[in-house]
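Duplicate of #3305? Posting structure anyway:
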């Protein structure tokens, strides 16, 4: 019989499993049982529409057999089974998207540094059995088709031959590795060890996991004589954690459930449980992770909650249950109000799912606000991790959800030097302050040095420093909070000067109209003017119109052909010596004036983080002026 090689992408993963650098080998059993449970779900689900399949729900089970002599563990299920082709496709290649992501991760530096604990972040599936086995045999039978056996020692590929099995289902035999000085595999042949692993990882599996175990009980009629018997027992309680009374489940159990199911090392930041009885009844456990999953900001990330119908999983990631802005939430929803018969396409349109989704959304919202109220530090941690998505939620769908989300927002406050809510900003507004001020830039330090910030600070008004690319779009969508408008400090019409100052500046601008016009014509700006908004700095840009300079930067940095331009005003400090110098040069030396103008313009660009078109020319100009 010809040996087949594993697909190359699977090989590296297999190598890792065989040489098993991962410390937590125990998980192999969880993975096999989870596959068996999926196979039972699949069969049961199919049988609801295909009566030929003749399935009795109470006969569906998983069986474990230990054999100390042969050093084997068998995991047997009477689920959907696999035919020859499926054995080949499913076990010869990496099937799981998580496994694929894992493989990609293995090529990164982190993995090369042998920081291998990352394995736990992925569902490594069937291959994890090679951590403990030197050989694996999988005999499987699908419906009326012939049984086949897939055999592999991992290294040299696999073979498939005719198998010997009468009943539908899959039987997996692990030939355990020999013990070494460092590692003990024999413990997996002990009943108590298997029992412990099932309790820990697979207790809530909704099918019985059975094993023949040695039991000890008092002999009939005797008070001290025990008899030992081998008996088939069910090891798992089969009650999913969300179906147990909330008061009986410890925090640790919720945390363990979360970590096992979602392959996280850290406890969730928050666990939300909810149980609703009424027109639509359901139970849900929702988790907010402490950290964003490794693929959260990639296209590969799929949002969604696992959807169960009375304990049987219908869908692993039902995306209809979560809005995009809460896509970080993980969890399970179980309802009796969905018929298992329903097709997946239909499911997406059913009222029940929509009602549950709506309830869950407002539940998450409420819990987040509660966290904000009761545990600010925790909330800040949450917002730093997942806030971008919420800000995006305000801005997307034409602002449809902005009212729901506005109180969840936080921005960096110049005064408090930490994130605050819009409510906190408004509560601390000064007498006479009309707007909510903000400034954008790459970092809070950089923003703090912006010349435009000075005039607002001088009034003792707080400023929100926006550093996330979506921030300004988010505030533009909101337009106002608590009837207070948002104002960009770089907006040309801030109107913070006194009337006296205004008159003075107006006169200065009128008197020098020709000079300013001349500068404007020679620079790439919409206006040049003397200003009072600058205190110590010589020059800056402000903008008029809807597009701010920061938005110009963000949009132009996007990988589309579209470019936009803000309408810029070059503001020159009316009280700075440079103003007099410009006036003088206008009368005496226009060529020299243009050199000064170019330098000032470039300075404003640099302050805003805009590219200077010709840095070489700028460098030459500066030296020319310096050496005069
Ligand atoms: P995953 O379970 O995440 O898809 P695995 O590598 O664990 O990845 O399994 C690959 C595939 O093999 C599964 O998707 C399933 O189709 C099939 N499979 C594994 N175990 C069984 C089983 N006990 N019965 C039927 N099919 C199975």
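Output from current build:
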């Amino acid at each position: 019989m010809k040996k087949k090689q594993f697909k190359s992408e699977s090989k590296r993963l297999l190598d890792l499993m065989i040489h098993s650098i991962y410390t937590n080998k125990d998980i192999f059993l969880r993975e096999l049982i989870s596959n068996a449970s999926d196979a039972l779900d699949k069969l049961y689900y199919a049988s609801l529409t295909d009566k030929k399949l003749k399935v009795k729900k109470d006969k569906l089970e998983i069986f474990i057999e230990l054999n100390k002599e042969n050093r084997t563990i068998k995991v047997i299920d009477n689920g959907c089974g696999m035919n020859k082709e499926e054995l080949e496709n499913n076990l010869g290649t990496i099937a799981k998207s998580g496994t694929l992501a894992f493989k990609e991760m293995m090529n990164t530096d982190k993995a090369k540094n042998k920081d291998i604990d990352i394995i736990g972040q992925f569902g490594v599936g069937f291959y994890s059995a090679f951590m403990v086995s030197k050989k694996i045999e999988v005999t499987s039978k699908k419906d009326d088709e012939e049984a086949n056996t897939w055999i592999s020692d991992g290294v040299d590929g696999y073979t498939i031959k005719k198998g010997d099995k009468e009943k539908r289902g899959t039987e997996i035999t692990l030939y355990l590795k020999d013990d070494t000085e460092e590692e003990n595999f024999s413990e997996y042949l002990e009943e108590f060890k298997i029992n412990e692993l099932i309790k820990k990882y697979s207790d809530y599996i909704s099918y019985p996991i059975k094993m023949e175990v040695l039991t000890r009980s008092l002999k009939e009629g005797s008070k001290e004589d025990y008899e030992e018997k081998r008996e088939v027992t069910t090891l798992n309680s089969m009650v999913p954690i969300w179906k147990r009374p909330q008061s009986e489940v410890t925090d640790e159990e919720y945390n363990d459930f979360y970590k096992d199911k979602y392959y996280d090392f850290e406890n969730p930041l928050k666990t939300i449980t909810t149980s609703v009885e009424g027109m639509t009844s359901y139970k849900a456990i929702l988790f907010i992770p402490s950290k964003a999953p490794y693929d959260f900001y990639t296209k590969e990330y799929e949002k969604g909650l696992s959807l169960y119908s009375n304990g049987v999983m219908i869908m692993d990631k039902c995306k209809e249950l979560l809005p995009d802005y809460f896509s970080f939430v993980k969890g399970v929803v179980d309802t009796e109000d969905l018929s298992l018969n329903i097709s997946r396409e239909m499911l997406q349109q059913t009222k029940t799912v929509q009602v549950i989704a709506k309830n869950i959304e407002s539940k998450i919202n409420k819990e987040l606000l509660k966290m904000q109220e009761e545990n600010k530090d925790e909330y800040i941690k949450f917002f730093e991790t997942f806030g971008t998505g919420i800000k995006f939620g305000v801005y997307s769908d034409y602002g449809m959800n902005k009212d729901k989300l506005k109180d969840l927002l936080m921005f960096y406050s110049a005064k408090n030097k930490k994130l605050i809510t819009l409510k906190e900003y408004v509560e601390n507004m000064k007498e006479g302050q009309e707007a909510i001020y903000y400034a954008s830039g790459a970092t809070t330090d950089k923003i703090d040095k912006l010349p435009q910030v000075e005039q607002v600070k001088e009034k003792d008004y707080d400023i929100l420093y926006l550093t996330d690319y979506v921030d300004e779009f988010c505030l533009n969508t909101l337009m106002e909070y608590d009837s207070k408008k948002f104002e960009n400090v770089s907006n040309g019409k801030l109107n913070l000067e006194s009337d006296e100052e205004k008159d003075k500046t107006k006169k200065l601008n009128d008197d020098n109209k020709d000079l300013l016009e001349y500068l404007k014509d020679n620079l790439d700006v919409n206006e040049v003017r003397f200003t009072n908004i600058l205190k110590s700095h010589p020059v800056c840009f402000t903008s008029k119109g809807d597009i701010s300079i920061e938005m110009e930067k963000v949009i132009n940095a996007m990988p589309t052909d579209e470019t936009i331009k803000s309408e810029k005003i070059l503001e020159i400090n009316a009280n700075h010596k440079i103003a007099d110098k410009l006036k003088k040069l206008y009368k005496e030396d226009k060529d020299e004036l243009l050199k000064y103008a170019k330098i000032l313009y470039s300075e404003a660009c640099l302050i805003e983080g805009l590219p200077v078109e010709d840095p070489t020319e700028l460098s030459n100009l500066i030296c020319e002026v310096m050496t005069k």
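Confirmed duplicate; merging threads. The pocket of adenosine-5'-diphosphate is lined by residues 31, 35-36, 39, 77, 79-82, 90-91, 95-96, 123, 125-126, 170 (CB under 6 Å). The first helix runs from residue 8 to 18.
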